[in-house]
Every structure is written in C-alpha cells, then in structure tokens.
Amino acid sequence: MKLSLVVNGEHYTVDVDSDTPLLWVLRDHLQLNGTKFSCGAGLCGSCTVLINGKIVRSCSYPISVLKDQQVVTIEGISSEHPVIQAWKELDVPQCGYCQSGQILSAVALLDKTPNPSETEIKKAMNNLCRCGTYPEIKNAVELSTELKRKEA
What we know:
The chain is of the alpha+beta class. It is 37% helix and 15% strand.
C-alpha cells in the first residue's frame, strides 16, 4: 500500500503494509533511527514521536492511521531548542537509549504547559529510563522552562 506522510516537515511516500507500525517506517524506510525500539508494546516510551504535537508511541501506531498529520521525530528538533540545550547543559543521559522519547515528551509538555509544576512534570514525563536518570530529567525540564522563557 502506498502512503504519503510528512515527517519533520519533509514529504515522503512509502510502500508498506497498512498495519506496519510507524516506528518501522521511520527506521527502516526513512532511515530516521533516533526513534528507538524497546518494549514493542507502547509501554516504555523509547519510540515516542509527536503527531500534530501530541505524544504517540510509534511502535504500536499503524501507519494506515496516519492521515494528513505531521510527524516530528527527534531529528526534527533543533539543536537550539531549549529542551536540547538543557539536556546538554545538565548532561542528562547515561546510556541515552530513552532520551529521544524523553526529549519529545518534554517538548510536548512545554508546548502545552509553558510553566509546568513539579507534579505536572512528573505526570508528563512517564517514559521509562533504564538508568534511572529521573531526577536529572526533571531538572532538565525545569531548566528548559527557564531557557524557553529567556528566548521569548
């Protein structure tokens, strides 16, 4: 089945089975490998992408559901984005495997809630981290808020 999609502002056409998960289209067909595979059941968040600004677990999202929607992967987030800057400044990742999903979750949170409370951060940042860097992730989201405010 031929499908058209927009990823990180670029238009693509792929020929895949309609039930192919978006994750595998991104990784295998578009060579966008920043989105990771881990649990395969949409539970851990390593495969997180944004679709029309909302968090989606791409490992369990069939490509056929993606109609006229904008997909953003970690490759679509500028290195100058406040979340990326905070992650670098605080040296958040250890193994780094979950970081693309964590970063996209933080981007979505700050787009929706520019000044989140600690409770809102903890609720929104629900991806799993093998290394347990949750305090650093929370600190980076808080710093991102400050950096975003300064750039406005």
